[in-house]
């Protein structure tokens, strides 16, 4: 394989953008494990009493990720996130007003490998607040991350909360409105389909978010992130292959998927874990009005789910031409 090296005269700003993305990759892939290891070392050191105090704090604070979290505007507005968003770049596009008197459930598609668009748009910077004043976004992630010492504080500070039913209910149950639950509908399983050019969404069997919207009367909003699947390449893993079978089994056991992805490096463009510089355009669709129904029937859930799929496809078709998707290509629902 011929290695393509980056030119020597790359502008300093682009170098800083690459470093910003590198720290995001580290945070996403290794920081949780690093924090767990640090905690073990703390317990085994002469400062073990600090570890014990943290365990007490963890016990008292265990329910916070399911009760709106503990966000920090200071962390969300770190300068490093500006460089992170500019690297791709990441842009949030508004197609309709969202009345802050209501609560919303935003379905984010596709998952991609590392959900860069969801993090960049809903956890960092002022874009969402500027486009949708009066609304506070809550990005729901796997509950397992909130069991990692220290790491849980970091992800909560960026506005992330648990993806448990209890957590989603807490966000959507705000009497005064103004809350927006952001759920990556395809989940970890969908990351295994995140190949460049892929438009396959794992959604046909995912109806829990529909039930939550009905029970709380939260308006549904489809969100499609163009470019999300273009950031990395994956080792070929078609359904039925040995690799995909192993990945599916591991995903069911551990709760999260292990896509074998690669892209570019820091000083060369041929291999590494740094994502490609591909623009991400996250388009927020129009709200689907939902009437509160504490005990929806299966038929009502199916009807709203079908309407959601229809609106999601409509959103994609209306915008795909602007972002380089060929006219003949369309979404595939699985």
From TrEMBL:
<keyword id="KW-0443">Lipid metabolism</keyword>
<comment type="pathway">
    <text>Lipid metabolism.</text>
</comment>
<protein>
    <recommendedName>
        <fullName>Acyltransferase</fullName>
        <ecNumber>2.3.1.-</ecNumber>
    </recommendedName>
</protein>
<keyword id="KW-0808">Transferase</keyword>
<comment type="similarity">
    <text>Belongs to the diacylglycerol acyltransferase family.</text>
</comment>
<dbReference type="GO" id="GO:0006071">
    <property type="term" value="P:glycerol metabolic process"/>
</dbReference>
<feature type="transmembrane region" description="Helical">
    <location>
        <begin position="47"/>
        <end position="64"/>
    </location>
</feature>
<keyword id="KW-0472">Membrane</keyword>
<dbReference type="GO" id="GO:0003846">
    <property type="term" value="F:2-acylglycerol O-acyltransferase activity"/>
</dbReference>
<dbReference type="GO" id="GO:0006651">
    <property type="term" value="P:diacylglycerol biosynthetic process"/>
</dbReference>
<dbReference type="GO" id="GO:0004144">
    <property type="term" value="F:diacylglycerol O-acyltransferase activity"/>
</dbReference>
<keyword id="KW-1133">Transmembrane helix</keyword>
<keyword id="KW-0319">Glycerol metabolism</keyword>
<dbReference type="GO" id="GO:0005789">
    <property type="term" value="C:endoplasmic reticulum membrane"/>
</dbReference>
<comment type="pathway">
    <text>Glycerolipid metabolism; triacylglycerol biosynthesis.</text>
</comment>
<keyword id="KW-0256">Endoplasmic reticulum</keyword>
<dbReference type="Pfam" id="PF03982">
    <property type="entry name" value="DAGAT"/>
</dbReference>
<keyword id="KW-0012">Acyltransferase</keyword>
<dbReference type="InterPro" id="IPR007130">
    <property type="entry name" value="DAGAT"/>
</dbReference>
<keyword id="KW-0325">Glycoprotein</keyword>
<keyword id="KW-0444">Lipid biosynthesis</keyword>
<feature type="transmembrane region" description="Helical">
    <location>
        <begin position="21"/>
        <end position="41"/>
    </location>
</feature>
<dbReference type="GO" id="GO:0019432">
    <property type="term" value="P:triglyceride biosynthetic process"/>
</dbReference>
<keyword id="KW-0812">Transmembrane</keyword>
């Amino acid at each position: 394989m011929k290695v393509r090296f980056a030119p020597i005269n790359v502008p300093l700003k682009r170098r800083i953008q690459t470093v910003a993305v590198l720290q995001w990759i580290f945070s996403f892939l290794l920081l949780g494990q690093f924090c767990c290891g640090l905690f073990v070392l703390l317990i085994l050191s002469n400062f073990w009493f600090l570890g014990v105090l943290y365990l007490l704090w963890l016990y008292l604070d265990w329910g916070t990720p399911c009760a709106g979290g503990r966000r920090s505007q200071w962390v969300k507005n770190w300068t490093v996130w500006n460089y992170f968003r500019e690297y791709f770049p990441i842009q949030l596009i508004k197609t309709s007003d969202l009345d802050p008197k209501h609560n919303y459930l935003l379905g984010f598609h596709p998952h991609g490998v590392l959900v860069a668009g969801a993090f960049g748009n809903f956890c960092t910077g002022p874009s969402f607040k500027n486009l949708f004043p009066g609304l506070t976004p809550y990005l729901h992630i796997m509950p397992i991350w909130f069991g990692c010492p220290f790491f849980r504080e970091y992800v909560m500070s960026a506005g992330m909360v648990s993806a448990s039913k209890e957590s989603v209910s807490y966000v959507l149950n705000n009497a005064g409105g103004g809350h927006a639950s952001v759920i990556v509908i395809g989940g970890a399983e969908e990351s295994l389909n995140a190949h460049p050019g892929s438009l396959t969404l794992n959604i046909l069997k995912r109806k829990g978010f529909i039930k939550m919207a009905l029970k709380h009367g939260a308006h549904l909003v489809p969100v499609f992130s163009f470019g999300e699947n273009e950031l990395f390449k994956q080792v070929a893993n078609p359904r039925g292959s040995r690799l995909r079978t192993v990945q599916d089994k591991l995903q069911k056991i551990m709760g999260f998927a292990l896509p074998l992805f690669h892209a570019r490096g820091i000083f060369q463009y041929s291999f590494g874990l740094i994502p490609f510089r591909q623009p991400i355009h996250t388009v927020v669709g129009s709200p689907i009005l939902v009437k509160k129904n504490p005990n929806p029937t299966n038929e009502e859930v199916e009807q709203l789910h079908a309407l959601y799929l229809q609106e999601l496809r409509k959103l994609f078709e209306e915008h795909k031409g602007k972002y380089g998707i060929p006219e003949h290509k369309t979404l595939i629902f699985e």
